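cron nightly-structures :: item 1 of 1
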Amino acid sequence: MRLDHLSYAAGPDGLAGTAARLGAALGCEFVDGGVHPRFGTRNMVLPLADSTYLEVVEVLDHPASDKAPFGQAVRARSALGGGWLGWVVSVPDIAPVEERLGRAAVVGSRHRPDGTELRWKQIGIHGLIADPQLPFFIQWEVPAELHPSAGADGSTSLAGIEIAGDPQRVSEWLGESVEAPLEDVKVEWVAPHGTPGILAAQVQTANGIVRI
């Protein structure tokens, strides 16, 4: 189990505008990730070191976005002005998570602009919707060279995450200590005053650490 990526919901300036704003702050450029047809969303991604990445995601005017929990989550966060949607942990086998949560994972996919299809299984979006401090789980079904972090030059990395929430609650959700997937990332836990969830990410860039 390891940290896979952070997801940021587009704000009023839309997917491209939000990605451009975050990219300018980091001195990096997000790339078009493609459409998630099963979820009614699309994304742009920024590869980071250590097999992690940042994702900006936008809901589409598509029936799938009303039915799929992920689409619902993105729509709700964007309706609040956008911002951090959640964090995602990657597991080599999602079956134990399915057994612990008592439901089946759903299949996700997207086609990159070059036509390459990425496929995965994910579970836990309902938990994220109910309690945004909780991550959801993903099992990639593509080789490492197709993971969205591929192509990172190593100059930009995730240095820390600020989360409003309770690490004990998150550990219970993960089925193991919250330190396990976050061992390489500094996490600051803040008592939530209002809605729990990610407050900010600290990104190590060529120009120092940038908080977004």
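cron nightly-structures :: done
Residues 159 and 203 are 5 Å apart (CA to CA).
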